[in-house]
Design brief:
The structure holds 2 protein chains of 2 kinds. Chain A is an alpha+beta fold. Helices cover 43% and strands 14% of the residues of chain A. Chain A has a 5-stranded mixed beta sheet. In chain A, strands 3, 4, 7, 8 and 9 form a 5-stranded antiparallel beta sheet that branches. Chain B is flat. Classes of the chains: A alpha+beta, B mainly alpha. The interface between A and B is large, with 111 and 90 residues.
Chain lengths: 399, 167
């Protein structure tokens, strides 16, 4: 009886989805709605499928690397991000931005390829067709949103976005990826049919078009990826950052003036407070008198650029030992900067233990300049730059 | 295949609904979410009503004015130039630059774009020369030696990307 009820329910649903909807009058079928309106002989299901697979792969890479970056900054309780490999986050975030840029020619070519479907007739044959079209609308709008906001963000053109970029980019990513997976489910038979083996490759012009799309992605990559892959930095004439350009040879995201800390970091005003089982207060001179270590670590920004520096300072684990912090603790670093979302960050447990994690006092052989976080900043392996607090005023041991 | 399709559609729906519900419960106020929607819709409209028509116009001009042997090469040059310009014009406009932080957007992006476009068109010119030679000096000749073959559909492929066929 359950089976019959189930079959009846499925039948009812299928009937609802596939009941024909009334079509608009034929006299409205003018301009781009006519059958022969789009004349390019290059369009075909196979071209659309090939572009779709490339684009779907790119969006999946962006989604995975993006959610990872989000998870590192806002870790759920079950998530433990390791301190090694040192360069891992540099790679994942570099891939995120580079893949996003590659997605621009892929998305534009794909949308050109299916543009006639915007004007298909009748606009909604049945409910299933209408829902499928709605999911495509969400996918197109969401995909364009992600790429546009991503580029505006790395261009630092914030006024062009009437919202906080980070949260917007994150939420719309979920909606876009959901629509992408629905789209794949809807189009699976079309893709399978179009990519079946045994076709002779007579479409040289379409191969040329795909090659052009690939070349566009290649040019865009070569002109920008040097912001994170240092050996290619000479080619990166269109990259928003250059790994060697900045104070002490390293780029800066937030300056001391923007952070409004220039008065707070001066001697003799400055003190570092460390709160643990014991409480310790240190001046910069006292910090400099502690055993110093030098490490080579990159700053890897969420914007997809990265640059390596030689940092000198006190090991985080030495400071934790000084206040009697328990094993496996985390550390919250609070900046003298206040009033933004990034004024404190929690160093995960594995990073607190790692000998490469420093409270740095110097960069590339000289004391930290104001823009790099004078008098001291956190520097740790495999962590986004935004979590490596500058102008540290207080360290708080967390369980 | 049917089961796979149903699973994919369900999975996608769950992911999308999760995103929306989570955003409504823990995310920014409705006013701000409204701005996301407006931004996305404006982007889609600008693409569909401005960007694609420009591309279609360029394609039509190419079909009308360019000799068949040159069409593919020119199309490639225009495509690459258009995409690179579109993706990088926010850097060229330099709105994100502030003199207090010269390490952000430190380069001359107008020059960078011009250099990149010059390299693209140099490559296009080389490709055109190669094509010219390949076609047996077909410029101006009639017959098969002069024309590039019209794109034919491979076995199993279809002309229209699904107009009138099932979802």
């Amino acid at each position: 009886m359950v089976r019959r009820a189930g079959a009846a329910l499925t039948g009812l649903l299928a009937g609802l989805l596939h009941r024909r909807l009334p079509a608009p009058p034929e006299r409205l079928r003018v301009g781009p709605f006519r059958t022969d309106a789009f004349s390019s002989p290059l369009r075909s299901e196979r071209l659309t499928s090939q572009l779709g697979i490339a684009l779907g792969t790119a969006f999946t890479i962006c989604f995975v690397t993006g959610i990872l970056s989000h998870g590192i900054q806002h870790p759920p309780s079950w998530f433990a991000w390791p301190a090694r490999p040192v360069e891992l986050y540099r790679v994942t975030q570099g891939v995120h931005v580079a893949t996003g840029l590659v997605s621009v020619p892929l998305l534009l070519a794909k949308l050109w390829s299916v543009y006639p479907r915007l004007f298909e007739w009748p606009p909604a044959r049945d409910l299933a067709h209408a829902l499928s079209r709605a999911s495509v609308l969400v996918l197109v709008a969401g995909g364009l949103f992600e790429l546009t906001t991503g580029i505006l963000d790395i261009a630092r053109w914030y006024p062009a976005m009437p919202f906080f970029f980070t949260t917007a980019h994150h939420w719309v990513a979920w909606v876009t990826v959901g629509a992408l997976v629905v789209h794949l489910g809807v189009k699976l038979p079309v893709v399978a049919r179009a990519l079946r083996r045994g076709s002779t490759a007579v479409d040289a012009s379409r191969r040329g078009l795909l090659a052009a799309v690939g070349a566009a992605a290649g040019v865009l990559t070569l002109a920008t990826v040097g912001q994170t892959i240092a050996p290619l930095s000479r080619l990166a004439v269109l990259a928003p950052r250059h790994p060697d350009i900045g104070p002490q040879g390293l780029p800066v995201n937030r300056t001391a003036m923007q952070a409004k800390v220039t008065d707070l970091v001066r001697e003799p005003v400055y003190r570092l407070h460390i709160d643990g089982p014991r409480r310790v207060t240190l001046t910069r001179a006292q910090l400099a008198a502690l055993p110093q270590h030098t490490v080579e670590l990159p700053i890897s920004c969420v914007e997809g650029w990265s640059a390596t520096g030689h940092w000198t300072g006190v090991r985080v684990r030495d400071l934790l030992a000084m206040v009697g912090a328990p094993a496996g603790c985390r550390l919250r670093a609070e900046s003298l900067e206040t009033g933004t979302a990034y004024t404190h960050a929690v160093l995960p447990a594995s990073h607190c233990r790692d000998p490469l994690s420093l409270l740095a006092l110097g960069l590339n052989g000289a004391p930290l300049e104001a823009d790099h976080g004078y008098p001291c900043r956190i520097i740790a392996p495999n962590l986004p730059g935004v979590m490596q607090t500058k102008w540290v005023g207080r360290l708080v041991v967390l369980p | 295949m049917k089961l796979t399709r149903v699973l994919l559609c369900t999975l996608g729906l769950v992911a999308g609904v999760y995103g929306v519900v989570n955003m409504l419960l823990t995310g920014p106020p409705l006013v701000v979410i409204g701005r996301y929607v407006v931004f996305a819709v404006v982007a889609a409209l600008a693409h569909d009503l401005l960007l694609v028509p420009v591309a279609l116009l360029a394609g039509a001009l190419l079909a009308r004015l360019a000799p068949a042997w040159l069409r593919g090469v020119l199309r490639a040059g225009l495509l690459i130039s258009g995409v690179v310009t579109l993706a990088t014009f926010p850097f060229v406009l330099h709105r994100g630059y502030h003199p207090t932080n010269p390490s952000a957007l430190p380069l001359d992006y107008t020059r960078g774009l011009l250099v990149t476009l010059a390299a693209v068109w140099l490559g296009t010119a080389v490709a055109a020369a190669v094509r010219y030679v390949q076609c047996g000096h077909g410029h101006g000749e009639h017959g098969r030696a002069g024309a590039a073959p019209a794109p034919r559909l491979a076995a199993g492929d279809r002309r229209d990307p699904g107009l009138g066929e099932g979802p």
